[in-house]
Amino acid sequence: MNNINTALQRERQKYKVRTFYLLGFIGCISIFVYFFLLLSNGTKIIILPEEASINAKVKSENFFDLSFNNFIYSFSSKPVFSVSSKGYKKIQETITHENKGKFHEVLMTELPGILNVNINNKNENTQWFLDEKFIFQGEKLEISLPAGQYNLAVNNPFFEKKNTNVIIEKGEPNNLDLELNNINSFIKIDSEPTNATVFINKKKIGQTPMIFKDQGGKYMIEVKKENYEKINETIIITNQNKVNQRNYILELIEAKLKVTTKPKGGNLNINGLVYQTDKFINLKSNKEYIVSYEKAGFKKKSLNLNLKPNEERTETINLEEEYGIVEIISKPKAEIWINEKLSGQTPKLVELRTIQQTIEVRKKNFRSVTNKILPKADKKKVLNISLIDEKTARLQEAKSSYNNSINIEMKLFNPKGDMLQLGAKRHEKGQRANEILRKVNLTKPFYVSLHEVSNENFTNFKEKQLSGNGSFPISNISWIEAAAFCNWLSKKEKLEEFYVIKGGKLIDFKGNSNGYRLLTEAEWEWLSRKANKKKASKFSWGDSFIIPDNYLNIADESAQSNQRNFVKDYDDGYENLAEIGSFNKEKSGLYDLSGNLSEWVHDYYTVTFSDKIEKDPLGKKKGSSHVIKGANWSSGTLTKIRPSYRENGIKGNETTGFRIARYL
Fold first, then answer.
1. What is the set of domains in the chain, with CATH numbers?
2. Helices (H), strands (E): how many in the chain?
3. pLDDT tens digits for 457-509?
């Protein structure tokens, strides 16, 4: 008993000691807090928005600082504290020196709520809307939203649309599971012809016409009927098209047709469409077809066909040759050449294959006419051709002028059978004995150079010591040199050479050649006296003895100091030779025909009397010298200025040049 009392006494003593120490500790703490609050400056924390301050907790982040009733007490110069409140984002800030012991304002930010929505039938094409605004497409919705009330719309294409209101709390999740309602839909299926079997998703459903009812989704439709091509289609039923209607037009199963033909290379036509022969062609069955085959030169052949479903048929078409009648007439009569083979003379009826034929009508000295013709079996064709003589044809085609390969301008003249009396009568003033009267008839069109051949022109053929620059007419040229120049130019332009020259001598000339040559005496005098005039004149400008101004270069008054003979009252502006083209055109349209330089002509020099009319005379083929026509810069007498004046020579001199010509 005593032992128990002793133990109890000891415990009481221990309790008193512990209580004493506890009260002492609390007293010390209280004293410390008291002095701390007296000595420190408390900073009031003002929390915004006001709603956040209701449940806000302010906590000092420094060990020796105190927080109490939204105040921070600290000996630190920059106390750090944190504020937390339900539904708001926790913040941590530092009290500045300026705010310490005063007020420090903090603004808290609301935490968003989380909306999680699942649906009973997930589909990646599901569309999600909040307050009628599209926000997402996918199987489910997970989104952060500010607190508030929203209208949620769910559109899964295979179910009815769903609308519901949702409330979002700050910082709180809202988990929803929504049940979507099935679509009540149907597909009406018909066909032509009817009683076709319908399979949906590979399962036999029935025969057309029929109605298939089901929910939204994807359906594979197959429609079959014997002897008809099957039809496959995928129909998607959504809440936008709950009702679907189909009327399928069934096509008969195709047949195959191959057409072999003889001859090959024609056109195979089936109901207006072109196909290849000797190959199988897919055609619709139970349909009427007109099969035709044709080839130029053969009679067309046609077949009428009707093919059964799945039938495979081969047909053969052999064509017969076809002919047509062609009547060929020409004026004058001429040879008929068909495809380069002689076939007689016009007029003639010929039987020809109904393919393109080349028919040519030929006659010597006439321009041939060629026609491409396609004979017809049911209609005679007539070719009525008027042939044009070669000269007329060439004249019609000829250019009025052209520049040749060395830039000499050539002008076309057509005497048209003009008659001219060469020479001069005995009583004509200035007449000489060698100017015998000759009647000529010029029928051939010819080109003649507009100017006399220049130094520049001649040096293309042969280098020569020249007097004056390239624009002056060439002089000091012998007749044979002038003829050789003509042959060189003909060869250059691939024309037949007019002169036959061997060893520097004239052997012969080719009167029908179209190569370059010298003017004939008759052509020269016709150009000077008659070309572009109503009648022949004594002088190149007319019958008057007065020379027109700037018309020709002769020995004028300026030549009286060094020449015995000169023309009075005329001044051409040049003491001797002038550049080509320095004077006006003559009546003929040529330059310097009657002056500047005398000109070599083609003819051998002869003095022969004849009463016959000479047609396009070229003169004799043998002789000792050649005719020189026209006045020159040294001519000072009336005799020499007349076009009928004629001289002769062989060698060149300073007063003689030439111009070129050629027959058309």
1. 46-110 (2.60.40), 113-178 (2.60.40.1120), 185-249 (2.60.40.10), 255-318 (2.60.40.1120), 324-389 (2.60.40.1120), 398-664 (3.90.1580.10)
2. 7, 51
3. 999 998 776 666 889 999 999 999 999 999 999 999 999 999 999 999 999 99
